[in-house]
Design a protein that fits this description.
33% helix; 97 residues
Length: 97
């Protein structure tokens, strides 16, 4: 049995955003991200903005970090990369390794 972890690996990098999948299949990825986001029909993942803030931990309380994060979300919004509710950011999926 594989155990998946969800982490924000490079929380200060607002220029790239991807989900790294070590599960190898959509079912495993769906289970791994439950509570943090959801798979799209196109194979991408919508990651909840609230989940990203929670994964950022104390950084989310830093005004400078939060400004960078908010700019990233605004950029994503401008490119149509938020879900319909505006509460999750689309990420492409890259295989682990």
């Amino acid at each position: 049995m594989r155990h998946a972890t969800v982490a924000l690996e490079e929380p200060d990098d607002f220029g790239r955003f991807a989900v790294i999948d070590g599960t190898g299949d959509d079912a495993g990825l769906g289970e791994a991200i439950a509570g943090h986001g959801r798979l799209t029909d196109g194979g991408d993942v919508f990651v909840a903005i609230d989940a990203l803030l929670a994964l950022a931990g104390e950084r989310a309380d830093d005004p400078a970090w939060r400004a960078g994060f908010d700019q990233m979300v605004a950029f994503a919004r401008g490119h149509g990369w938020l879900d319909e509710a505006g509460t999750a950011v689309r990420a492409h999926v890259e295989p682990l390794g």
